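Subject: for your reference before the review

Hello V.,

The reviewers asked for a structural picture of the protein, and I figured it would be easier to keep everything in one thread rather than splitting it across files. Below is the amino acid sequence we used in the manuscript, unchanged from the supplementary table.
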Amino acid sequence: MGATTGGSLARRDQHLVVAANGAMAAYCDGDQIEVVALPGLEAGVTIAADPDAVATELEWLGNPPRLLVVSRYPDHTTLYLVEVEGPSELAELRLAVPAILGGVIGPHALLIGVGAAGGASVVTMRDNQLVSQQVPTRVAPSATGAAGALFIAAIAGAGALEEWDPASRQPRRRFKLPRPALVTAVGGSDRLLWITTALEPALVETIPLVNRGQARSHALPEPIAQVAGHPRSDVIACLGADSGQVWTIDLEGRTGPRVLDDPDAHAGVPTEIALVTGRSNGLLLAGAGRALAFVSLDELVERRLSATVGVVSAATPGPAVAPATGVAVDPVEPGPADRSAGAGSPPGPDHGSGMASLAERLARLRRVTAPGRRGPDDPDATPARAPTGSAAMATPAPTAALAVGAGRPDPGATPPPREADAARSRWRDELVRWGQRLGEDEVAPGPAVAAIHAMSQRLGLDPALEPCLALLYAGHLLGRAGAAPYELARLGGWDEALGRGLLAARGIVVHRDSRVWLAPEVTRALDELPAMTGVEVGAPGPVPPFGPCVIVHQGPLRLAAMACAEALGGAVLAASDGADPRAALREARVRGATALVPVAALPELELTDGEAVVLAAVNDAEADALGLPRLY
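And here is what came back from the structure prediction:
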């Protein structure tokens, strides 16, 4: 929101938002959006949300603030820009994938694609219109937020945070975390960043950007359900998951932690909170079926919390290390020119939801005026409708956005390969030269390739079959359409060449049109491309490290992947929503990873005693019924 720094792909949908100037707030309760003035909570307009949407989220954009209403559907997302004085709809934009809000900075909102769609886009308010442009990122972040004038993204599997410039949509710096952890919420200010993690849900950890001897962590007495903040403030508010208590923490340490001892006295225990800064400083409390409540920060009682203070070191030139944290900070090279997907794109197809346009619903709104407050002109006139636009938010192709290095290359020139990249690719050069030398009458000995040998070990192959893998991958690098069966027969025999051998039985090769191909998941793994069926985190080993086990987890599996990887000591491939669990299991085997799939997929799988798979149950009863060991 305009006044929120923290965000997470695991968090609940954002229903309570405060404008950056602290003058207004909006709250979505069911299919009604209420707008109020702060701090007195004088009633403003009531806006009808679409009841057919899977979820409705809110944000404030720009100054003066305009309300952004995000309606998410199973296969798309529709954004509406609303002028609340009136009210009237200013613009509408359709994204071709379901997406959630990841933070707001001024006129810019970050949208993250959910499920298999992935991807990220920045939606910008320009002249009361909405324009969407893609962010060049290879993986969907596990959490996003805002800090100062930049977005912050926690990169799943990389153990790092990245700064994203909202205007250029390019990464600025990367902060390597001192230990691997699945970040569940992230935010900050111009002076520091903060995170929460899945493994320590009661802990807020900080990364100072300006060294003032700040505490490096703050431990609450219970897990944190939500963190609310402001991109220009060092104060955050935390909602306790067990008690519903509300805490505020000054991360700069100017005042001690404060707690709202009796949130029940303010119309019940809240389920969502927002930090208010600007005209007044306080907290806004909301909950299903209860009235909004504003609480001044002066009403909170100071209470001591456990905090860890970092040792302040001498200042170091440049941004090489974040002070007092040991967090490595690297500049990130910009990727290639981004692809714009906003104005001029054809409108998306009508998905037949039957919903009336927001403009039509706004025309039927009732104006709620507090006693003694003058209402506006008659709101029943249908407001003018801005032209609609459409924006696709498909996952972009891999770019150099995550590469670490200084300087901005010429976008028209091909950057020289780095030494590390060149060394990593030499085995492919050797494999290509070997593939080119293979003649019809002579089989040249293949090069010893560590990547091929590791793949063979993961798949349980006889080393004698490694030349077959090398031949098929060399053909891929040479752009050949598979290999002829006789070529494979010279290296592995006719059983393998004709699909009667181990390679076909284990799904490593595909036979089609009298040609033999490597299975797509094998080719992608050797190409070092991201997995097709899910998100991979952790470092792979030569063989999967564990047999069947179970965890209890609700929500997207990728949010449990880092915790599983830490517990297993190896790589984990978390299946995406809607992915074929059998394909995810095959791809995990190929990558030397443990597959993480829902228990509901169990009937489709043929598991062995040593199968590397973690099953995610929705509750303890479902987990206990499996009779498998608990991972954690």
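For the response letter, the relevant points are probably these. The chain has eleven helices and 39 strands. Confidence is low (pLDDT under 50) at residues 1-5, 7-11, 309-326, 334-421.

Happy to draft the paragraph if you're swamped.

O.
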